[in-house]
Each structure stands twice: as structure tokens, then as C-alpha cells.
Design goal:
This protein is α/β, with parallel strands linked by helices. Helix content is 37%, strand content 17%. 50% of the residues are buried. The protein binds iron/sulfur cluster (SF4).
């Protein structure tokens, strides 16, 4: 018997009343679908997807800020998934088709050559994502500062994961029984920022990698904790996650960023859930340079991404799913990204809902 099958049998023995486990990371969501894990779980064990897709949680008002800079003649660069996310006046992709200078980058360091190659242009990096991408933005700014580049700035819409989990775990309407915590973010942050989930909120929490064995091991660990009535923070990600995290990445982030309030799609404004540039790097701050004030954006009519991102509904419960909203013509960001919950459901489970 392989480990996944053995673990699924253990889950069937352990889980005999309804429990709801949130897999926080979009990569977990995709791996769960791809591996067919849902079909091996007891019907009482529901999996709900969380706000772990960086493109999806970027508020529409933040996207509108980036679009407004194109209107003002700046070059706006972003990672590819951001390009098709709709804002009020289109998307970066549609604006590029209309002749605006929006560019896809695969690395934050691409911005250095872009800015140095065209010194009369203002080059702006739309920097989104969690603690996984923020260190690269920090390294970019340290290097840009060292080189004395003056036409480069960053719209820092990076998000911090722990405040989002604090919000979700305090929501009495969600009743999350356990958290499958994001592996990549935990590699950077280590254990401590997530320990409150078990110690303060009493919710079993397990850091897991992305292969099926690790995911079911994490679920068994959560089920064992629920069975015993004792919540703890564990890791089944082996040596990839050190309890202290990645010191080099943490130092980079700490040198360049400080926490600030930030607006999340689905969760709204959350205290200290974003990353702003420290005063030493304020010359690279696009919000200051262009006098921008991001405001909470309007959700596209009918789109229920906010409810999907907080596990309140599955994508099938959105009336636009698979009709007005498809990967080829997305209405909301959850259908755009490779890690978006709606995109994963569309690709892997169009006909069946699968257990919650
Ligand atoms: S199916 Fe489309 S419109 Fe509905 S919640 Fe998902 S992304 Fe938004």
C-alpha cells in the first residue's frame, strides 16, 4: 500500500464528523486537484481554498493605480499573471494592445536593464505577492540604489500572510478546523509567525510541501490533532523549512520594507498586512513619486472572488463560473492565475463540485 492510500485510510478512521481544512496556498489547491486527493478523503473532511494566490488577492484599486501610470506615460512592468487581471479601464494586457508600454518580466532584476536602457522614461515595477517575492523586490531596490538609478520606482503592493490568517481564523462564520499552511512562505518566515494559530486560536496548523504525500501527511496531522483535542503548529515539509526561516531573505525584507495597512481582495483592509518602502528607499516609492493614493477597488459585477478567496463558496457557486467567466475571458483574478482557485476548478473539475 502506498503512503497516500495509507494516509487516506487513516483519515477515514480519524474523521467522523464534519471538519473544514483550509489549504492556504494556490499551489496546494492545484496539487490537490492534479493528484486526485479529494476522491480519497472521507466525505466529512472538506477542503476550502484560501487567499494564497498573489494575483487574486491584489485589490482592484491597486491594479487601477498601475493602469493610471500607463496613462501618464510611464513604463509599467509586472509578472505575467498580473497582465490579464481586469481593472476599471482594462488590464495591463489590453492597455498594451492599445499602445501603452506595459512589459512582462520574469525577474525583478529585469527592471535594472529596463531602467538603465531607457533613462528618460519612468519605469515602474508593479510588485505584488507574498513574503516569497518581496525579498527579490528588496534586492532589486538595494542594487538600484547602489547603481544610482533614478528613473526606477516600485508600486509596493506586497502582502504579509500572517495578518490574513489572523483575520480568517477570527471569523466566526468560517469555522476553519485546521490550516494547511503555505510551504514556500514558511521557507522564508519559519514557524514563529504562524504559531498564534494553535496557541491563541486553538486551530491545528501544519506546514506542508506540495507533493501529494506531504499534503495527505499534513491532513493526517491535522486530523490527529483534532482527534486529541490539542492544537499545535507542526511541519511536514522536512528540512526545506527551518524554524527560524530564511535569515538572508528576512534581512533583505527588513532592510527595505516596513509593514503597513493594506487592502486585500476578499478580506478588505487589514492592519499591517502590506509592505511599504522604508524612508531610506522612499525615492523609489512610486506612490510618493506619482502622488498616488490607492483606494479599495470595485469588484467586477457578479464576480465573487472575495467569497472564493475566503472559502465561503466554491467557484461553482459563482453564477459566472464557466459561462461569462472562463480562463480565455476571465471576469475576476481567480480565473486568471495558474494558482487561482477558479482557474483550478475550471481546469480540473468543471462538472463536479467535489467535497467542500
Ligand atoms: S468564476 Fe470568475 S467571476 Fe466568479 S468568482 Fe471566479 S473569477 Fe470571479
Amino acid at each position: 500500500m502506498d503512503r497516500v492510500t495509507a494516509a487516506s485510510q487513516a483519515l477515514k478512521r480519524l474523521v467522523d464528523s464534519p471538519v473544514s481544512v483550509m489549504e492556504v496556498c494556490g499551489t496546494h489547491t492545484v496539487s490537490i486537484f492534479r493528484s486526485g486527493i479529494r476522491s480519497l478523503l472521507p466525505p466529512e473532511l472538506g477542503l476550502v481554498s484560501g487567499p494564497g494566490c498573489p494575483v487574486c488577492v491584489t485589490d482592484q484599486g491597486e491594479i487601477d493605480c498601475a493602469l493610471s501610470l500607463l496613462d501618464r506615460g510611464a513604463v509599467v512592468a509586472a509578472y505575467g499573471d498580473m497582465f490579464r487581471v481586469p481593472g476599471e479601464s482594462g488590464s495591463l494586457a489590453s492597455k498594451r494592445e492599445r499602445g501603452f508600454d506595459a512589459r512582462v518580466v520574469t525577474s525583478a532584476f529585469d527592471l535594472l536593464a529596463m531602467a538603465e536602457g531607457d533613462p528618460v522614461k519612468e519605469v515602474v515595477f508593479l510588485a505584488v505577492g507574498f513574503e516569497t517575492t518581496a525579498p527579490a523586490t528588496a534586492a532589486l531596490l538595494i542594487e538600484a540604489s547602489r547603481r544610482g538609478i533614478r528613473n526606477l520606482s516600485v508600486l509596493s503592493f506586497h502582502k504579509r500572510t500572517p495578518p490574513a490568517l489572523a483575520s480568517l481564523s477570527a471569523d466566526p462564520g468560517l469555522r476553519i478546523s485546521g490550516f494547511l499552511l503555505p510551504g514556500h512562505v514558511s521557507v522564508i518566515l519559519g514557524h514563529a509567525p504562524f504559531s498564534f494559530l494553535a496557541s491563541d486560536r486553538g486551530i491545528p496548523s501544519v506546514i506542508a510541501g506540495f507533493d501529494p504525500e506531504q499534503i495527505v501527511s499534513g491532513l493526517v496531522d491535522i486530523a490527529l490533532q483534532l482527534h486529541s483535542g490539542e492544537a499545535a503548529l507542526h511541519s511536514v515539509y522536512g528540512r526545506a523549512v527551518r524554524p527560524e526561516g530564511n535569515r538572508r531573505a528576512l534581512e533583505l525584507m527588513d532592510r527595505v520594507f516596513e509593514s503597513r495597512d493594506s487592502c486585500w481582495r476578499g478580506l478588505g483592509p487589514l492592519a499591517k498586512s502590506g509592505l511599504a518602502l522604508r524612508a531610506e528607499f522612499s525615492g523609489f516609492d512610486a506612490e510618493k513619486r506619482f502622488e498616488l493614493k490607492p483606494e479599495q477597488g470595485r469588484t467586477p459585477p457578479g464576480c465573487r472572488c472575495g467569497d472564493v478567496l475566503t472559502g465561503r463558496i466554491t467557484p461553482h457557486e459563482c453564477p459566472l463560473f464557466g459561462s461569462a467567466c472562463t480562463p480565455a475571458s476571465p471576469t475576476g483574478p481567480c480565473m486568471v492565475s495558474a494558482e487561482g482557485t477558479c482557474g483550478a476548478y475550471f481546469k480540473f473539475s468543471r462538472r463536479g463540485g467535489g467535497p467542500r
